[in-house]
Amino acid sequence: MTQSKNVVIVDYRVGNTHSLERSLKRCGLSPVITSDPAVIEQADGVLMPGVGAFGPAMESLMETGASAAIRRFVDSGRPVLAICLGMQLLADEGEEGGHHRGLSIIPGRVRRLAPPQEHSKIPQIAWNEIMPVADDWRETVLDGLQGRQMYFLHSYVVDPARPEDRVAETDYMGDCFCAAYRSANVHGVQFHPELSAEAGQAVFRNFVRLIDETAQKNDI
Amino acid sequence: MLTVRVIPCLDVKDGRVVKGVNFVDLRDAGDPVEQAKVYDAAGADELTFLDITASSDNRDTLFDVVSRTAEVAFMPLTVGGGVRKVDDIRKLLLAGADKVSINTAAVKRPDFVKEAAERFGSQCITVAIDAKSVAPGRWEIFTHGGREATGIDTVAFAEQVVSLGAGEILLTSMDRDGTKAGFNLPLTRAIADAVSVPVVASGGVGTLDHMVEGVTEGHASAVLAASIFHFGEFSIAQVKAHMAAAGVPVRPVDGGTAAA
C-alpha cells in the first residue's frame, strides 16, 4: 500500500514547490504536482503548498477547476495538509493585496500579523516555537513535536472561527496566532515544514501516517 | 520562543564557492552544494548564496547550483547577485530559492522592488544594502562591490525600499566587511530602528561577542557571517551556544526545544 500512495501537490502556477516535493520524496512518496481536478480527486492525500500571493493563487485555482476538486476531496474524508498561503487559501476570505474570497473550507478569515510590541517587524522571517492549544496532538501532523522550532516566512495568518480548531499557537512579538489548524481531515500549518529541517520532516511523516490510517479505514 | 537567525554566507562564482569553508572532509570544497549540506547538518538557520559572477553568461550555472542545493538542504535559501529583472527572480524561485536578494538594481530603479513584491510577495524579496560611513551618523549607499558612491543616504533608502515592499534588509557595512572588527553597530541600529521589516546584520564579524552585539546593540533580527565560518574559526554550534549564554534566543543546533 505504501508504494501505491498517490499524493498530489496542488499547483497554483505561482511559485517554487521544489522544497516540498523533495521533503515528500524523502518520506518515500512520489508526489504529483498538478492543477488537474480529476487527478486531485483521485489522490490519497493532497498538499496545498505555501508559496505565492493570495489573489493570483485563488485565480489560478478557479481557472483550472482545482478549487471545486479540492472541496470534493475534502468531503471525501481523505487528509489535506495546507501550508502557509495554502492554509490561508482554505479560509473564507483574505485581505492580502485587496479583498479576496477563499475556498471556505476553513471557517475563518485571514488577517495581517499585528504584533503590539514596539519596533515589531513584518513579515515574520524566523524560527519560532509551536505551543500546544489542543491537549492532544496525536491525531494531528504535530504528533511528537511539542515545543519544537519551525521556520516561519509570512505576513498574514488565519484566525479560525472555531477556537477548538486551533491545534498550536505561536507568539510573534506579542501576537499569538494560529500556527496549526485541524478540523477532521483538514490540517493546516502556518510555518513551512519543508524548510524546518528534521522537525519539519516529522510533520510530513505524521501526514503520511494519517494517509495510511485513512486508507486502512476505507479498506475495511 | 522567537529566535534570532544565524546565517552563513557563501560567495559563489561561476558555480563554485570562492570564499568557502575549510572543512577537511569535503569531497569537493568548491562545490556550494557540498557546503550547503554541511551547514544544514550543522544547524544553520538559513543559507545565503551571493553570486559574484562578473558576466551574466554563467547565470545558468547559478540556477543549477540553486536547484541542486534545494534538493539536499532542508533549510531556507536566499540567493542574490546580479538580480536585475522580474524574470531573474522568477527563475531563481523556480530553481528552489526561498528568498531572492536585490542589490544594485534596487538602487538604480527602486520601483523594481515594488514590482517584485507585488508579483512574488514581500516575504521573498530581500534588499541587500552596502553602506559606508561618510560622516558621524551618516552612511551612504555604495554599489559595485563598494567602489561606486551613489550619494544616497542609507536610512532614507532603507525606508524607501521597505515602503515599496521589501520584506527584509540585508545590511552590509563596507567599512567593516572582512575586517573582523565587528558589525557597524550604530549603522545597524539606525536601520533596524527605522524600518518595519527584519534586518540582517552583515560585515565585520570576528568574534562570538560580535554576533551577540549585532542583536543586543544593533537590534538586528538575524546575523550573517562569512569568514568566521569559512576558515573554521567557529562552528554554528559555538556561535549559538555563545549567543544563548548571552541571553539571545536561538534555535538549538540539536533541533530540540528552545534554550535561551
UniProtKB/TrEMBL annotation, chain A:
What keywords were assigned to this record?
Amino-acid biosynthesis, Cytoplasm, Glutamine amidotransferase, Histidine biosynthesis, Hydrolase, Lyase
Pfam families membership: GATase
Encoding gene, per UniProt annotation? hisH
The scientific name of the source species is Pacificispira spongiicola
The UniProt entry, under HAMAP family, shows: HisH
| Recorded catalytic activity of this chain's protein | L-glutamine + H2O = L-glutamate + NH4(+); 5-[(5-phospho-1-deoxy-D-ribulos-1-ylimino)methylamino]-1-(5-phospho-beta-D-ribosyl)imidazole-4-carboxamide + L-glutamine = D-erythro-1-(imidazol-4-yl)glycerol 3-phosphate + 5-amino-1-(5-phospho-beta-D-ribosyl)imidazole-4-carboxamide + L-glutamate + H(+)
Query: Active site at which residues?
Result: 84, 192, 194
- Mainly resides where? cytoplasm
Q: Which InterPro entries match?
A: Class_I_gatase-like (IPR029062), GATASE (IPR017926), Imidazole-glycPsynth_HisH (IPR010139)
Subcellular localization is given as:
Cytoplasm
Pathway(s) it belongs to: Amino-acid biosynthesis; L-histidine biosynthesis; L-histidine from 5-phospho-alpha-D-ribose 1-diphosphate: step 5/9
Q: What does this protein do?
A: IGPS catalyzes the conversion of PRFAR and glutamine to IGP, AICAR and glutamate. The HisH subunit catalyzes the hydrolysis of glutamine to glutamate and ammonia as part of the synthesis of IGP and AICAR. The resulting ammonia molecule is channeled to the active site of HisF.
Mind telling me what this protein is named?
Imidazole glycerol phosphate synthase subunit HisH
Q: Where is the Glutamine amidotransferase domain?
A: 8-208
Describe its partners and assembly state.
Heterodimer of HisH and HisF.
The biological process GO terms on file are: L-histidine biosynthetic process
- As recorded in UniProt, its EC number(s) are 4.3.2.10, 3.5.1.2
UniProtKB/TrEMBL annotation, chain B:
Recorded hits in Gene3D superfamilies, A to Z, give: Aldolase class I
Which pathway does this chain act in? Amino-acid biosynthesis; L-histidine biosynthesis; L-histidine from 5-phospho-alpha-D-ribose 1-diphosphate: step 5/9
Entry GO MF terms: imidazoleglycerol-phosphate synthase activity; lyase activity
HAMAP family noted in UniProt: HisF
User: What is the protein's quaternary organization?
Assistant: Heterodimer of HisH and HisF.
Q: Which family does it belong to?
A: Belongs to the HisA/HisF family.
Enzyme class at the top of the EC tree: lyase
**Catalytic residues of the enzyme:** 11, 130
Catalyzed reaction equations: 5-[(5-phospho-1-deoxy-D-ribulos-1-ylimino)methylamino]-1-(5-phospho-beta-D-ribosyl)imidazole-4-carboxamide + L-glutamine = D-erythro-1-(imidazol-4-yl)glycerol 3-phosphate + 5-amino-1-(5-phospho-beta-D-ribosyl)imidazole-4-carboxamide + L-glutamate + H(+)
Q: Which PANTHER family match?
A: IMIDAZOLE GLYCEROL PHOSPHATE SYNTHASE HISHF (PTHR21235:SF2), IMIDAZOLE GLYCEROL PHOSPHATE SYNTHASE SUBUNIT HISF/H IGP SYNTHASE SUBUNIT HISF/H (PTHR21235)
Q: Which UniProt keywords apply?
A: Amino-acid biosynthesis, Cytoplasm, Histidine biosynthesis, Lyase
Protein name, as recorded: Imidazole glycerol phosphate synthase subunit HisF
Gene Ontology terms: cellular component = cytoplasm
Principal cellular location given in the protein's record: cytoplasm
> Where does the record say this protein resides?
Cytoplasm
Function of the molecule:
IGPS catalyzes the conversion of PRFAR and glutamine to IGP, AICAR and glutamate. The HisF subunit catalyzes the cyclization activity that produces IGP and AICAR from PRFAR using the ammonia provided by the HisH subunit.
